[in-house]
Structure formats: C-alpha cells, structure tokens
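Hi,

Apologies if this is the wrong queue. I'm a grad student, and the batch job for Guanidinium exporter from Methylophaga aminisulfidivorans produced an output file that my downstream script rejects. I'm not sure whether the problem is my script or the file. Here is the sequence I used:
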Amino acid sequence: MAWVYLLVAGVLEVVWATGLKYSDGLTRLWPTVIAVVTVTASLYLLGLAMKSLPMGTAYTIWTGIGAVGTVVLGIVVLGESASPVRLISIALIVLGAIGLKVSH
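Support response: The file is valid. Your script probably expects a header line. Output copied below for reference.
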C-alpha cells in the first residue's frame, strides 16, 4: 500500500505545483486553495508511505514524479520547450527513480 500512497502523493505534487502556477503568486483564490489542499494531502500521503519505505527512496521518487509530471505538463499544456536536453534530463530522473525502486 505504501507504493500506492507514494504514487498518489507524487501525482498530487503535480497538481499543487500547477495550482501554484495558476495562483498568480497566491493572489487568485481557487488555484491557491487547490495548491494548499493538495500540498497538504501530498505530504500526508508521503508520510504514510515513509512508514514502510526507506526515506531516501520515498522522497526521491516523490520528487521525481513531481518533477517529471510538472515538466511533461508544462510541455504538453503550457507549450514549454521540449528540447533534447530537457527530454534527456527527464529520462535521467526516471532512470534514477527506477534504480532506487529496484535496489529497495
């Protein structure tokens, strides 16, 4: 169950980061509310996952899901650059997370 908590926590990290982007510096109410609620839920689920997963593995995978998810969302939704360097960097993050999972 810890891996499910961690996956959902990572997805919620993407949601809160996106809410933060749309909050316009925490000046727009609903995107700010979404960011605050989802960051709280994300951290709660990360804490549950860390009850049985190694801290370093859980935290790295959580941030990896958030980082990769926000970059992909930025490329697909916001039209951010999909340069080869960015795509290679995403691949390296994913490979690092896989390495941690396999070594667990």
